[in-house]
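Inverse folding, one chain.
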């Protein structure tokens, strides 16, 4: 399922085209172009049909970012068509909240809330500044923010974790163990959503099912669970940070699920979401199955 991103600024000739080009570049470098679409638009209609400001174009050219779009104004249908709509500053965000129709699906986010310090989270409009410096600053902010968003989008509880939940439940049942198994995401992106269709298909190929609905992990999860198993090193680091924010009395032991595979090269279960095919999900399934079987073998008589 393709996810769609819309970058917004006041006139769609300075910040949002740069943000659009940077996000496209970020996605292409991750090999995920088939799974994401990116566009940009304006709050106002002053520059409709115009190319970006010459300083924006020269900044993008300096960083080898091609750009051919022309300015357009955001429309109500965009709030239904796009998954994420990013504003560049608080004024943009206020306008977007005012324009958003009831029950639209788009998440309204400020781009600078990702990967930037609080003191640097506003991507200022460089239009009225002299020279290219403001455009270069906006570019550098966009590079950090787009990379941070993309990394965080990997932790959404629709791919690896519901697959691991289903696999672990299967083997728990096979061994007649009275264990409870659940899954969660580190982010809110996919709260309330069913797992990715490719996840469901790979489970079905192996005679497994899932009725899981995406949710975000809570501090209480660190108290009521004995183990919290991460899929990769980024997940692990965030979980360890969250664990420190809970209490020394917490129950959960935080580990990599893949540590239960002997082969070091297979211990990181990569997010298959950005794969162009179902192959990444099948690979993750094999890693998860081996990890779950070995986890149970190690703990079924000791815990």
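Residues assigned per position:
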């Amino acid at each position: 399922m393709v996810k769609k991103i819309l970058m917004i600024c006041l006139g769609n000739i300075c910040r949002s085209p740069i943000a659009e080009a940077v996000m496209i570049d970020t996605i292409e470098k991750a090999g995920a172009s088939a799974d994401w679409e990116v566009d940009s638009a304006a709050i106002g209609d002053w520059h409709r049909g115009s190319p970006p400001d010459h300083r924006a174009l020269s900044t993008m050219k300096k960083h080898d970012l091609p750009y051919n779009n022309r300015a357009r104004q955001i429309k109500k249908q965009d709030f239904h068509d796009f998954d994420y709509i990013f504003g560049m500053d608080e004024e943009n965000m206020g306008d977007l909240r005012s324009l958003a129709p009831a029950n639209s699906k788009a998440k309204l986010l400020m781009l600078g809330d990702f990967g930037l310090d609080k003191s640097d989270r506003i991507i200022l409009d460089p239009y009225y500044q002299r020279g290219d410096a403001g455009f270069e600053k906006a570019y550098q902010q966009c590079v950090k923010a787009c990379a941070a968003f993309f990394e965080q989008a990997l932790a959404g509880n629709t791919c690896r974790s519901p697959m691991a939940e289903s696999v672990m439940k299967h083997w728990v049942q096979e061994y007649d163990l009275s264990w409870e198994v659940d899954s969660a995401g580190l982010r809110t992106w996919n709260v309330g959503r069913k797992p990715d269709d490719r996840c469901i298909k790979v489970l079905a190929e192996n005679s497994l099912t899932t009725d899981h609905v995406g949710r975000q992990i809570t501090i209480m999860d660190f108290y009521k669970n004995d183990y919290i198993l991460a899929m990769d090193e980024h997940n692990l680091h965030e979980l360890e940070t969250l664990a420190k924010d809970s209490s020394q009395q917490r129950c959960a032991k935080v580990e990599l699920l893949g540590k239960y595979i002997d082969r070091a090269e297979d211990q990181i279960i990569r997010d298959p979401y950005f794969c162009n095919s179902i192959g990444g999900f099948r690979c993750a399934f094999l890693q998860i199955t081996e990890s779950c079987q070995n986890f149970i073998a190690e703990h079924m008589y000791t815990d």
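The beta strands are 3-9, 36-42, 84-87, 107-110, 227-230, 253-256. The chain has a mean pLDDT of 91.
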